[in-house]
Amino acid sequence: MDKIPAGEIKDRSPFLKWLDNYWYHYKVPTIIVLFSLFVVIVCTFQMCTTSEKYDVTVLYTGPYLMTSSERSGVINVLNTAMSEDLDQDGHKSVELITYQVMSEQQLRDMAAETDENGKPLYEVNRTYYTKEYENYSNMMMTGEFAVCMLDPWLYEGLANADRLKKLTDVFGEIPEGAVGEYGVRLGDTALYQYYDALKILPEDTVVCLLLPYVFGANSKEETYAKSIQMFRDMVEFKMPE
After folding, report:
1. d(CA 146, CA 173)
2. CA gyration radius for the chain?
């Protein structure tokens, strides 16, 4: 009987034994999971690389939380207000970014509201509002937009920090409904008064324009010019006769 040469007898490692056993029992589920993961990765990549191109971005931040249909209505109004196709791609398209943010006083007032039996009407989720404010603050540092619709206290904060462009630099004068040197009260614009879809937002919302940032899309003169035009279109909108 031939002897098996020393060195040819090898014990398989515990890992390989486990792998064989795992593959034998879970081959089909593993293939399904890997295939699903592949599909998710491919779809995510396609979504990121084929995202819609917008003419301009507008930010709303304040106490009102829009529903999906309300958000679509506001976008339609902004698209209509845009006087021209700013990027000349054949259609007008505004990107609307929204954050629901409240001041400390607004949160206290909301928490104090009660029904006829004295029970609180709202459960104030401070963690949510803190996170929304952080998201808003981070977005303000991207330089990816300039046109803003803001709750008055947020507008005042930017005005005091010299982050906003003066109205006289855009219009050559102070337009009707101006709030200080930098903003216009949304409720005083013909755009707000004509379109009901925009009236979901508080009348005292302030429309204003950020100064170009040191980086981001609006650091480029051509892109910032589109934001200026959109700001003018919103403030100078005339009601159809």
Report:
1. 20
2. 28
Gap between the Cα atoms of 27 and 86, Å rounded: 54
CA distances from 187 to 2, 135, 182, 193, 236 (A): 99, 26, 16, 7, 13
DSSP string, the chain: -PPPPTTS--PPPHHHHHHHHHHHHHHHHHHHHHHHHHHHHHHHHHHHHSPPP-SEEEEEEES----HHHHHHHHHHHHHH--S-TT-SSS--EEEEEEE---HHHHHHHHH-B-TTS-BS----HHHHHHHHHHHHHHTTS-S--EEEE-HHHHHHHHHTT-B--HHHHHSS--TTEETTTEEEGGGSHHHHH-GGGGGS-TT-EEEEBPPPSSSGGGSHHHHHHHHHHHHHHHS-----
Q: Which residues pair with 62 in a beta bridge?
A: 100
Mean pLDDT by 10 residues, the chain (241 residues): 47 64 72 60 42 89 97 97 88 96 96 91 94 97 97 98 98 96 98 98 98 94 96 96 79
Contact 152, 101 (CB under 8 A): no
- Angle of CA points 151, 153, 154, to nearest 5°: 65
Query: Could you tell me the two tokens for 231?
Result: 């700001």
User: What is residue 96's predicted lDDT score, i.e. its pLDDT?
Assistant: 98
Helix 68-81 vs helix 221-235: crossing angle, to nearest 10: 100
Residue 106 contacts residue 63 (beta carbons within 8 Å): yes
Q: Which two tokens stand for residue 237?
A: 């909108």
What is the pTM (predicted TM-score) of this model? Answer: 0.78
- Angle made by CA atoms 29, 33, 35, in degrees to the nearest 5: 115
